[in-house]
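Notes to self after the Tuesday call (sharing in case useful).
The group wants a holo model before anyone commits to mutagenesis around the pocket. I volunteered. Ligand is calcium ion. Logging inputs and output together so the record is complete.
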Amino acid sequence: MKILLIEDDLDLGNGVRIALTEQGMDVVWVRTLEDATRSLERDNCDLVLLDLGLPDGDGLQLLTKLRRSRTQADGAGLPVLILSARDSVSERLSGLDGGADDYLVKPFVLAELLSRVRALARRSYGFDGETIEVRGLALHAPTRRVSVAGRAVELTASEYALLKMLMMRADRVLTRRLLEEQTLPGSQTNASNSLDVHMANLRRKIGEGYIRTVRGVGYVIDLQAPGGHA
Ligand code: CA
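Result:
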């Protein structure tokens, strides 16, 4: 789980970064809207922690932009948790109306933040930072173990990375380019390392019925089995 932390307060940002990292999450920490925008385009984070009072503008501007975006790469559907000292009801509502998934008022204790992050991740991805499960296909991130209906499956590092990304974003179509860039660095220059090869091997190992090809676009793991029954 990769988290984009947008917070200009050095002490608070550092505390949050350390707490999340200790929970096994990757953290990209930026302190301005400009750097946040760049990170959103580049880092492919799974969840955003957004401070509102930033040196180059209001975090709500970024939230509005995110919620207007249409593609996965633009951050459509990205879960956002606002961290703000603005605690009046109207300010809190404007954050939630703006499309934030949750709102935490400063000062907060780190344990509260961690529990909100886990709850939001579970709601958004069915993932609490440790285990993701989709229709009997389970991935345990701390041990990198994958199983199908309780039967362990051995995956290569590339296959695991592909599967994890698809499972983390279940129900969302991931483009070939995004999958290649994020999970198979250097694949364009090396035919034997191509996405198709890894995808075929992965499907053979976990079985058909999990990864669906969206022709001309990419791949998706549906939360519900085709036909509507989980
Ligand atoms: Ca601030």
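Two things stood out.
Residues 110-125 form the longest helix (16 residues).
The helical segments are 10-22, 33-42, 59-68, 89-97, 110-125, 157-168, 176-183, 195-206.
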